[in-house]
Amino acid sequence: MTLRDAQRDTERWVAQYKDGYWAPAEQIVCLAEEVGELAREVNHRFGKKPRKPTESEGDLAGEMADIVFILCCLANSQGIDLDDAWKAHMRKLDTRDGERFERK
User: Fold this and answer.
1) Which of 12, 33, 17, 1 is nearest to 76 (CA)?
2) What is the CATH number of the domain that holds 88?
3) What pLDDT does 46 receive?
4) Phi and psi at residue 88, to the nearest 5°
5) How many angstroms separate the CA atoms of 11 and 72, rounded?
6) CA-CA distance, 98 to 41, in Å (whole number)?
7) Nearest to 75 by CA among 32, 18, 20, 11
């Protein structure tokens, strides 16, 4: 699956609803909420904040998928192709950071 595939799946799902995509500011708030949920789960698993005895284990993969979905919503609503954006980002990293870190 590519990011483009994820964006198509997102578009197909959103298109069935009258209201469509939320406004960008609302999407960012939703993204922040989802990142917070991921952070909470990571903190429970790997950090210093133990889970309450009454709390069940969270879904790390599900929280990550929630973030990808919201990013796809934001990209689609702004006409951004995440595959293209990703490729450009990786080219930038290879150029900017190619000699910054020791390679294997």
Assistant:
1) 12
2) 1.10.287.1080
3) 95
4) -65, -40
5) 8
6) 32
7) 11
